[in-house]
Amino acid sequence: MKLKPEQETVTNGEVDNKEGEEEEEDALETSSGSDYEEDDADLSEDDDTLTESGSEESEFSENEQEIAATSDDDYSTDGADHGQHDHGRTDNGRRQQKQDRGADHSQSEQNESDEDNQGVEESDSSEDEVAPLNTVGEVPLEWYKDEEHIGYDITGKKIKKKERKDKLDSFLASVDDSRNWRKIHDEYNDEEVVLTEHETKLIRKLLKGQAPHANFDPYAPYVDWFDFEDSKHPLSSAPEPKRRFLSSKWEHKKVVQYVRAIRKGLIKFDKPKEEPRVYHLWGDDSSSKEKSGHGLAYIPAPKPKLPGHEESYNPSLEYIPTQEEINSYQLMFEEDRPKFIPKRFTSLRSVPAYEKAVSESFERCLDLYLCPRARKKRINIDPESLKPKLPSRKNLKPYPTTCYLEYRGHKGAVLSISTEDSGEWIASGSSDGTVRVWEVETGRCLRIWELDEAVQHVAWNPSPDLPILAVSTGQDVFILNTGFGNEEDQKRVKELLHVEKNPEPDDSSNATSIVGWAQDDKHGGVRLKHFKTVSSVEWHRRGDYFSTVMPSGESRAILIHQLSKKVSQIIPFKLRGLPVSSTFHPTRSVFFVSTKKNVRVYDLLKQKLVKKLETGLREVSSIAVHPGGDNVIVGSREGKMCWFDMDLSSKPYRILKCHPKDITSVVFHRSYPLFASCSDDCTAYVFHGMVYSDLNQNPLIVPLEILRGHASSNGRGVMDCKFHPRQPWLFTAGADSVIRLFCH
Amino acid sequence: MPKHYRPPGKKKEGNAARYITRSQAVKHLQVTLPVFRRLCILKGIFPREPKKKVKGNHHTYYHTKDILFLKHEPLLEKFRDIRAYDKKVKKALSKKNRDLAERLLTRKPDYTLDMLIRERYPSFIDALRDLDDCLTMIHLFAALPAVEREKIQVKRIHNCRRLSHEWQAYISRTHKLRKTFISVKGIYYQVEVEGQKVTWLTPHALQQVVPEGVDYNIMLTFLEFYETLLAFVNFKLYHSINVKYPPILDPRLEALAADLYALARFIDANSKVPALEPPSVNSSGSEQDKAHQKESKLDESELRLAQLQHQLPSNEPGALMHLIENASGEEEDDEETRECKALFKNTKFFLSREVPRESLLFVIPAFGGVVSWEGEGAPFNESDQTITHQIVDRPTQGRRFLSREYVQPQWVYDSINARIILPVEEYLVGRVPPPHLSPFVDNEAVGYVPAYAETIQRLQAAARKEVLPMPGLGKEDLDDPQNLLAEGIISRTEAIEAAQKKQKMSILEKQYHEELKMELKGVQYSAGSNANKQNSAEDTEAVEESLPEAAVQQVAEDVASMAKVLMPRRKRKLYEAMKIGESRKRSQVDLLKERKKKIEANKSG
Fold first, then answer.
1. B184 touches chain A (CB under 8 A)
2. Which of A353, B91, B348, B385 is exposed most, by the fewest CB atoms within 10 A?
3. pLDDT tens digits, residue range A307-334?
4. In a mutagenesis test of the B interface, which of A271, A275, A356, A361 is the best target, namely the one with the most B β-carbons within 10 Å?
5. How does B62-73 read in b/e, with b if 16+ C-beta sit within 10 Å?
C-alpha cells in the first residue's frame, strides 16, 4: 500500500514536470484519497456483490438495458475508482481499456445479482405470491370475536375459526418443535406462521432501529433521477465541466495549509502539559544581594497600623465614647472625625460582619499603588535633647534677677532712660513731656524739667565732668544742665552752654542752616531746632559730639553736632532706606547707622562705608555695640535679635527669637558680659554674652533671666532698658509710667 | 522670555527630566490606563514625590527610571499579545466561526508572575517582610462570596481559601503564632517567621458584604500577585519542614470543610515520615494500608506505633503524637516557640457548634493543644472523658460534664496573649467576659494601663512565682522606689513622688548631720548657718521648691522658653511639633482617665 503513491509520484514526474514543490503534498493527498477508496472497494468486495444491484433495483425497473445504461452512467465515479484501485495507472489509453473492462465487469455482476434476487423474493414478497385467505379487510378483529368464523375467503365463503389447542398439547408440541421460537400466531388468518431466518433478521434490524433490508446502503451516492440523455430540451446544454472530475482546488489548498501548520507545530493535537506553577523560587542563594533592576531605591510601603484596645470587640468601658461625644463628632470637620467608633459586644457570637472590610482593603490597595512614597526620617528622640547644652546659670552670676526698686512719678509712659556715668543718677523722659532725674539708690526724684512735647529720648553726656543731658522732644533737641557736680564743673558747663548765644548769627551763614542753635533760658540749656521730628540722640564717647536722627529727614536725616563749636553737619554718606537709629563706636571713630533692613558702618575719618551688615530682619528697631567694638546686636520689630560678629561675617552670627512682640531696645553692659533686650510684651531678657579675645572662639551667648513686672498699657510694654554702668543692674522703663531697677 | 524657557536642543534637567506625570507615562508606554495600572501594581511601581513639581501640584509623578523599568518589562509585551489574541477570538466569534474561536480559546497565551516575585523580593526575607497585606487580602477573599458581576470567580476564591489554610497549617504546625486579637473588624494574628513579624487580619466567618463603590479589577490584580507570592512562600516554608507541596488532602475531610485539620494531618504525616522511616515507604497515599499493617506489627517500637496511630483517620492525634513532636523538633526552636508550644500542652478542647471553628482550630494547635469539634470528621466527640475545656458561646449550657470547664472563646485568645492559662471563672458560660485587650499596644508607652491589663500582669507574675505587692498597699515600699519602678505596676507618678520625698528627707538629714558636725568642731553657729545658706542658695532646685507653686511653674516655663531662644529655627519648629504631638497623646489619655472616673462614680453612686 505504501509503495503505490511513490510509484504514482514517479509516473507523475515523468508525465509532467511542471508541478513544483506542491508535488509532494499532491502525492500525499492522492495517496490518502486512494487509500480511502481502496478501503471502500475492499468492503464492497468482501460483502455480497449484491450491494450495488440491490440499491439500483429499488430505484430502477428491472430492465437489463437500463441497468447497463445506469452502470455506464455510474462509470464516472465507480469505474474510475476501480481503475485507480486496481492498477494505479494514469495512462489515458489504458484507462479507457480498463474502463471498458470495468463496465463489463459491472454488467456481469448485475446479471448475477438479478438471479439472486429472484431467489430471495419468494420469502420477501410472500404477500404478493400467496393471496390472503381472509377478505374482511382492515376491520377490527373484535367484531368477529364472538362469531364462529373469522371472515370470508375470496369466494365469499366463511372461514371457520380453527379449534383451539389444549394448553398442554400446545406446550408439548412446542417442546418438541425446535422451530417453535419462530412461530407466530397470525390472528387475521388464524394460522401459525413460521418465520424464516431472513424474516427474523429483518425483525432484529428493525428492533435495532436500522433499515430492515440487509443490503440497504443509507449512504449510497446520490444519483440524479433526471435523465439528461433522453430529454429533448436539457436544463443546461453545457457539457459536464471538468471540475466535476477533479478534486477541489480550494480544499486542496486548505489541506496544504493545515499540513504545513501541523509540520510547523502551529496546530498541536496534544493538550499543553500542565507544568507545576510553584517551585523553589528562592534557591539556596537566598543570601545573595540582588539589586532592584533599575537602581532606584525601593521604598517599602508602611505597614498597616496595628489595632489598639479600642478596636476590640469587647473593649474596656472607658474606651467607648458617650452619646454626647458621638454627637459632637458630627460637628467636626470630616477629616478630623474619628474613622472608627468603638463598640462593645458582650459575647463573640453577637459580633456582626464588618461592613467596611472590603472597602478598607480597597483603600489600602489604592494607597499601595497610588500614594507617592518618600522616605521620611522619623526622629524618635526625647524633645528635650534638641535643646542646646548651656552652661549652668549659677556659674554666670551676677546678673539682674529680681526687682529691687521702683521709680514712680511720671504721668505717662516712660519712653527713655539714661544712666549717669558714675551710676548715681538716672534721667528719664516720658510721654507726659517731663524729664526727671532720679537718685538711683533711694528712688528720689531730684529734678524735673517740663517740656512741651513728649520726650522721645534722653542721654547723659558720657564724660564724667560734664553733667549735662541731651533730650529730644518733638522737633527740638535740648542740651540741659543738670546742675550736678562741683562748682568747677558747673562753671565749665555753664560756659559751654553759654557760648551758644554767640554763634546764633552764624545761622545766617549757609553752613549750619539745617539746625538752629539757640539759648534756652527757661530750662537752662541750649535748644537745637530741627526741621523734622527727632527720634534719638546719641553722644560720642568723648562727650563733645552727638548725633541726632530724624527718620523722615530723607537725605538730611542724620546730623552730627559739635557742642563745643556749636556746629551741625550732615553726614557725608548716602543712606539707602529709612534710618532708625545711630551710635558711635566705643573706641574708634566709626559710626553705625541702622536703616530698616540693614546696618551700615562708616569710618568717619576716612569718610567711607566700612561694612554693611545684613540683618535679614523686617524692621530694625534698635542697635547696640559691644564695648569691645567688634560685636553688634540689633533688635527688631518682629521680636528677633541678631548678634553680629563683625570679624566673622556681615551675616548674623546668631539670631535669637525671644520676644513674641516688638523689641524696643537692646543694650550691652559696659563692663560685665551681659546684654539685655526689652520688648512690648512687658518682659526684658537678660543674656550672658561673653566675647573672647581669642579670635577662634565664638562668642558665648546664654539666656539668663526673664524679667517681668511691668504692666502693659496701650499695647506697649517696656519702652527702654539700660544697664547700670558699674553694677550688674538693669533699669527698665515701662509704658505703665514706672521705672524699675533689677538687681542681682 | 518665559520663566522656564529651555533653548531648543538643550535637554531637560533636574526634576523636569527625572519625573514624569502619569498621563505622560501612559503615553510613553503606549498602553491604556488600566494596563498601566495593572503593570504598576504587579511591578510594585509607585508614584514619587518630587521636590519640585514641574507640571503642577495636581499631578501624580513617576520617576522616569521607574517608567523605563516598566517599558522593558516582558509582561508589557505579553499584555499586548493577549490583547491581539483576544481580538482574534472576537473576530472569529463575530464571523460565526465557532470552531476557530474554540480552538483559539484552548490555546490562550498565558503569563506567569514568578520572575516578578523574584525581582521584587530577591531574598525570602524580603518576601516575608511584605507579607502583611498579602495575607490580609487573601484571607478577605477567602471569606468573600463569588460574584459573577464583579468577576470574582469561584476558582479564585477556592484558591485563596486553600492558600490561607496552607499558611495557617504551617504556622500552626511550627508553633509560630505569637499574638491574637479579636477586633470588630475580624481577628488579627501575629506570627514570627524567620525573625519577621507578620500580622494579618481575618474577617469574621460570616457572610461578607460586597459593596458597590469598589473597583474590583484593582483588587483582583493585587490578589493575582498575592496569590502567586503566597504560593511560593508556602512552597518554601513547606519544604523547610520537609513536606511536599502542594499538599494532597484527605478528600473526606475536605468535603466536610475541615481543610485545616486535613492539612495539619497531612503535614504531620509527611514531615515525620522521612525522618523516622526509611524512604521506601510511600507516606501520603497508603494510610489505609498502614492501618491494616498496624495490627500485625504490634511488637513494633512504641514510637512507630504512635506514628501509625496518628495516621489513622479515626484515631485521635493524642498525647503520643506530642511526645514525638517534642522529641524531634526541640533543638531548632527558640525559647519563645518552646513556650508557645507548651502553653496548652495538657489541655484538650472541644468546640461547640456556635464558636468560630476555623480560628480556634488554627490557634489551639499552634499553642500545643488538642482540639475537636462537633460534626463529622472530628477526631473525637463530645463525650470524651479526657476533654478539659469545652469552648461554648451561648447564654446557658444545658448538659454538662463535670470533668471539664465550659468557657467562652475569648478565654483562649486572652490566655494566648498573656502566655499563661488564665483562671476560667470570669469566662464561664453566660457571664460577660472581662474586656478583651489588644496585645499590640505598649501600655507603658501610651501612658494608660487598663485595669484588666494590670490584673493579667499580676497573674503572670504569680505564674512566674514572683510576689508583687497589691497596688494601694505599697506605702511601705516607699523607701525603695527603684523596686517600684522596676515592677512597673504602680503608676510612674507615684514612684516619682516617692523619690522626691525621699530626696528631700535625705537633704534635711544631711543638713542636720552637718550642723551637728560643726557644733562638735566648735565653729560659730552663725558662720555655719551662713555656709549652709550658701549651700542652699547653690542648690537652686531646693530654692525653687520653697517658692509658691505659681512661681515655680513660672520659673519652669521661663527655663523652657529661654532654652528655646537659642535653638535654630528648624530645631525649634521640630521641638514645637513634638510638643504638640505629646500634648495630643496626653489629652487622649486624659480623656480615658476622665471617662473611667465617671464610670466608677456612676457605679458607686
1. yes
2. B385
3. 999 999 999 998 999 888 889 998 989 8
4. A361
5. bbbebbebbeeb
